[in-house]
Amino acid sequence: MSHEEHTHQEIKGHKTLATPAVRRLAMENNIKLSEIVGTGKDNRILKEDILNYLAKQTGAILPPSPKAEIVPPPRKTEAAPAAPKDKVRKIPVPVSRPIAFSGKDRTEPVTGFQKAMVKTMSAALKIPHFGYSDEVDLTQLVQLREELKPLAEMRGVKLSFMPFFIKAASLGLLQYPILNASLDENCQNVTYKASHNIGVAMDTEQGLIVPNVKNVQVCSVFDIAVELNRLQSLGSAGQLGTSDLTGGTFTLSNIGTIGGTYAKPVILPPEVAIGALGKIQVLPRFNGKGEVFKAQIMNVSWSADHRIIDGATMARFSNLWKSYLENPALMLLDLK
């Protein structure tokens, strides 16, 4: 209340001041306000005056009448009322039983291509690998391939990106022949290979095989595509010959046909370098004007024998190979 409401009562010619609460207290105890001397301002009768008057009359202080209090409703308990013991639902406990399994381990001998891979990879562990990765914008190459595909199909040849990758690698090897070399077991002599026999890793039912395209340095892109078609057909049928699988000098592994972007390829001895090609993805990139455009991006991962190949040589070769693929017209200047 902003202020107290006062009740004025005229008794025997003088004014008696008291609040409604004091009047009610006096009425409940049959007390006349005229008989009480107020101690408040302007002789106002206070509640203490009523209580003191009662104490003098009865020797005890009577409490004031209780005010009606607003009692909030009881809160609803979150937990449900307990059910009678006889109605409590019992949760069945699962009985653990041993799982019957009739499978048995199987031992098979390592044979064929798998045995050859075990031997080759064991020898590869002796090579200190140096890794280098980069991304290549194949936007122009994708457009060029789309234009050449119908012409290749008219000649009965399936034209993939791999012939371009192989030819660009061969052009790069002409500038950096150390990547097309081999190191003897005693690490005393380096042999620079005249032929670019570039291997292509293939995933077949017989396992991983790496046939190679012979003399890429004198082949056109179309010649490489024809040879790749032949190797893939024979590889799927398991009819590749020894000559197709031996004599490699450099290898490319196209893991992008299965998936993935970057890899850590393992060198195939006696070679000294290998490249792994990731899948082609459509990603946003910036041009020279700072504008965003849609680019066909492929990641490449190189591994080199760090005993005879330093990082700068690998990086320069990768940059040259990358420039041929990003600007396919540049290959025309170096084709022989």
UniProtKB/TrEMBL annotation:
PANTHER family: DIHYDROLIPOAMIDE ACETYLTRANSFERASE COMPONENT OF PYRUVATE DEHYDROGENASE COMPLEX, LIPOAMIDE ACYLTRANSFERASE COMPONENT OF BRANCHED-CHAIN ALPHA-KETO ACID DEHYDROGENASE COMPLEX, MITOCHONDRIAL. Signal peptide: none annotated. This is dihydrolipoyllysine-residue (2-methylpropanoyl)transferase. Belongs to the 2-oxoacid dehydrogenase family. Its cofactor is (R)-lipoate. Coiled coil: none annotated. InterPro entries: 2-oxoacid_DH_actylTfrase (IPR001078), 2-oxoacid_DH_E2_comp (IPR050743), CAT-like_dom_sf (IPR023213), E3-bd_dom_sf (IPR036625), PSBD (IPR004167). Pfam families: 2-oxoacid_dh, E3_binding. Its EC number is 2.3.1.168. Residues 64-74 have a biased composition (Pro residues). The keyword Chloroplast does not apply. GO terms for cellular component: mitochondrial matrix. GO terms for molecular function: acetyltransferase activity; dihydrolipoamide branched chain acyltransferase activity; lipoic acid binding. It comes from Lamprotornis superbus. It is found in: Mitochondrion matrix. Keywords: Acyltransferase, Lipoyl, Transferase. Residues 17-54 form the Peripheral subunit-binding (PSBD) domain. It comes from the Eukaryota.
